[in-house]
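Final paragraph of the annual report: two paired records, presented back to back.
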Amino acid sequence: MPKMKTHKGLTKRFKITANGKVVHKKPNAGHLLSGKSGDRKRKLRRPSVLRGIIAQRIKAAMRED
């Protein structure tokens, strides 16, 4: 069976850390920011860690071995 190709769309949106965690940018911070509070916008700046089955699926799609 051939190797599984890396999903290039995911590589632009997610990153696998050295410990194997999946990190991504939080949604809702792209536009229409005037209606959001400063506290909410500040929290959206920080990256978020995915857990569970979603993280496993993203790792499988990004696998390059």
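The closing record of the year follows.
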Amino acid sequence: MENYLYTCQYCGKEYKPNRRKKQKYCNNSCRTRAYQLRNPKLGSTVPSVEKTPESVKIDKMSLAGVGNAAAGALAVNALTNLFTSEENKHATKKDIRELKELFISRYLPILNVPPNSLGEHPFFDLHIKNIVYLKKR
């Protein structure tokens, strides 16, 4: 195995070869891009990649950019709330909790049995699976 670094013939990056004196490229993607450039009749036009320090641009975060992003998010949320009908809006945890309390309670009313002599109405208890008589709230 070689002890020194080779230079990739496509991107120019230095690498340690895995194969002795046969490896010309640092990885498979550089190898295939170089092949596509050598054979233009394949129909693929891959531009050569030149990595120079001048061409690399790093965007910096600015207060104006953060403000613009926040204003944009607020505008989108406001327009979404304005133009979305109430039945198409998302359910919140509070909505789901209210539905559980409303529909899925321990006692379900029985409508086809009359109240007893004390005025208590029949309910089916889901926990003990029996009919119980309770005062209506």
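The mean pLDDT is 83. This concludes the annual technical report; the extension proposal builds directly on these records.
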